[in-house]
Amino acid sequence: MTKAGNDPVSVSIENGVGLIGLDNPPVNALGAALRKGLSDAVAALNNDPAVRVIAVYGTGRCLSAGADIREFGKPPQEPRLSDVLDQIEASAKPVIAVVHGTTLGGGLELALACHARIGLPGAQLGLPEVTLGILPGAGGTQRLPRLIGLQEAVDIISSGCRVGTDEAAALGILDGTDTRSPREAALAAATGVARGGMPTRRTGQIVARIDPELIRQAIEKLQRKRPALAAPIKAVEAIAHAEKPIAEGLKAERALFLELMDSPDRQGLIHAFDAERVARHFPETSATPRPVGQVGVIGGGTMGSGIATALLQAGIPVILVETAAERAEAARAAVAGNLDNAVRRGKVSATARDAQLAMLTVTADLEGLADVDMVIEAVYEDMAVKTGIFGRLDQICKPGAVLGTNTSYLDVNAIAAATSRPQDVIGLHFFSPAHVMRLLEVVVADKTAPEVVATALALAGRMKKVAVRSGVCDGFIGNRILAHYRKAADYMLLDGASFQQIDRALEDFGFAMGPFAVGDLAGLDIGWATRKRKAATRPAKERYVAVADRICERGWFGRKTGRGYYLYGDDKTREPNPEVAAMIEAERADKGITPRAFSDDEIVSRYMTAMISEAARVVKEGIALRPIDVDAVFLFGYGFPRHLGGPLNYADRIGAAALIERIETYAAEDAYYWQVPALLRELAHSGRSFADLNKE
Ligand code: 3HC
């Protein structure tokens, strides 16, 4: 075998088979060195008379997870992936691919350019490029429809979904399966080809039939469903070229690929991909996590039962404490209902659901937590109640148990101080519904031990959550920033914009829901309770909008009561609540405000500028480790439009100087609310961006 040091490609010859092993950990990304190694290996094996058939396989986790994303946005390096794959397709000697693990994007395109494909059990095949704002640019849009037909190729490419080994074989992506190791399977398949026992063909020579009506309908559907995203539509446009000779189709694919490569969507979506991975780099990563077998969850409400569900789904046994005995059975039913939903959506089998439910114990007794390795308290937001519980946990729990609180605002230092072991106390802020939402804010208090932080991070990994480290402040990263920018929406409401216009403008911008519709969904009583809690400490200079209080005083808490800003019908439609418009007018009259018109652009500008301002303060104060951590919080916990990459990634598109100019303009009306954050001034002064801070 020839392979020098870190060489990402190994080549060996056995019984007339030239074996090319891809070896570029962790996921065999197709970076420049690998592409060159692969191209050289194919050329050399073609020239070697001892070789009759060539086979490509991956060492490690997969054949390849695709192009090296870290090369995007940088000057291209030769050889291009598409050229290497054309070289493989044109190879005089047959080339076989063995597909194992997550074989995605360029990794699958490599397999498609080979002359036959063998899959190993558990492989996941897909072309996820559209989720990164691009399209398969190394022949995927031309070769997949040739192999499996137009409709199936459109579905796979425009959704970015993955298919397993069996489905891939049924679709015709795979020509066979094998249970041996990737290298053994490669050798066996190539030997089979050499003996004439397995047919091979060049995918590019298969004729694809393109139905223009099917293409038109697919594009129309995408425009309806995801109008903000160009990539899936362009991908379908590329597929439409698949009935041309392969060289022409590849040329058309490349032109569309390059168009998308230059788009801001691509930058935003890859930033979002990175945010999920960068956020888990905590300073405490090197500490040794404590083992976590069983976890206690306190509180059987929506949050507690959601957290218990998420733990059970991660295979972790749970003792759920609901001290109100009459609610204990309701809590069990809520967990069972959540697990049932996963079966209905085809996520797990009924047998797996039964096994998960069997790991749940429900008790009314806090003493039942004596032996658990970790506790997650999820009772309502009341400091006295929480400190009372933590005082008791201190008496009950075994030494070394991690004591987590799911508070969303309260001071974790004060909660820790209720115990004799503040080093074991940590904030674990889940987002509702906790078994669905991916974000977990890990709130590190002053005395939290590094191994307790590492334990939380390891648990987040098992639960497939996106963990973001936060310092202690009112609302941590997400709710603190939300509390600030939410006021900007209320100020616009009072000054003349309607709540429907604000919601629609922000939905058009890319948010799944505008802030008033979100308030109705979450329950207006939640914000009301917080406002009452903070009323005594609200600065006199701060503008206050009382519309939401007036709505709550009528007993209207949003969707759960059928009324809030909107009226909700049985069919989940929403209509503006006319009585709210009357309340707004009354408050305007009371405060002597003459309403003025707002353009949609101004609404977005004010809302986003307010969000960015508070986010900059959160970074400056060290509450968030890096700007990208704020982006992760908003992408995975607050429905921020993914293609914009998060509030601080978006901020770089506007630029610090322009943001300061906006704030100074708005400050003419309200100099207390609109203050320029120090970090924005520093960035404008030094010419740096939030992206630069991520690299420091
Ligand atoms: N390029 C560069 N680095 C990659 C990568 C890629 N394509 N895929 C994964 N990585 C890196 C991750 O950033 C991570 O780095 P870190 O350890 O420094 O944080 C490391 O590999 C491990 O990845 P994960 O933590 O994500 O590991 P998982 O096991 O959770 O997931 C995966 C593995 C399913 C492969 C997931 O990483 C993934 O979805 N990767 C992206 C796949 C993809 O989108 N491929 C298409 C690329 S575009 C393309 O091929 C264009 C072509 O058409 C021309």
Describe this structure in a few short sentences.
Pfam families: 3HCDH, 3HCDH_N, ECH_1. Its main location: other. The chain is an alpha/beta fold and 696 residues long.
What oligomeric state best describes the polypeptide chains here? single chain
Put simply, the count of helices is 29
Distance between the termini: 41 Å
Q: Stretches where pLDDT falls below 50 for ≥5 residues?
A: none
CATH fold call of the largest domain: 2-enoyl-CoA Hydratase, Chain A, domain 1
CATH superfamily of the largest domain: 2-enoyl-CoA Hydratase, Chain A, domain 1
Strand order of the largest sheet: 12-11-10-13-14-15-16-17
Protein structure class: alpha/beta
How many whole angstroms does the radius of gyration measure? 28 Å
Number of domain units:
3
Mean pLDDT over the full residue set = 95
Domain 3-hydroxyacyl-CoA dehydrogenase C-terminal: 475-568, 603-688
GO biological process, one term: lipid catabolic process
Protein name: Enoyl-CoA hydratase
Organism: Paracoccus kondratievae
Report on the architecture of this protein:
- The chain has 696 residues and is of the alpha/beta class.
- It folds into 3 domains: 9-262, 2-enoyl-CoA Hydratase, Chain A, domain 1, CATH 3.90.226; 295-474, NAD(P)-binding Rossmann-like Domain (Rossmann fold, 3-Layer(aba) Sandwich); 479-549 and 596-622 and 625-694, N-(1-d-carboxylethyl)-l-norvaline Dehydrogenase, domain 2 (Orthogonal Bundle).
- Helices cover 48% and strands 11% of the residues.
- The protein has 29 helices and 19 strands.
- The strands form 4 sheets. It has an 8-stranded mixed beta sheet with strand order 12-11-10-13-14-15-16-17, with helices on both faces.
- Helix 16 (412-416) links the parallel strand 14 (402-405) and strand 15 (425-430).
- The protein is globular, with a radius of gyration of 28 Å.
- The two termini are 41 Å apart.
- 48% of the residues are buried.
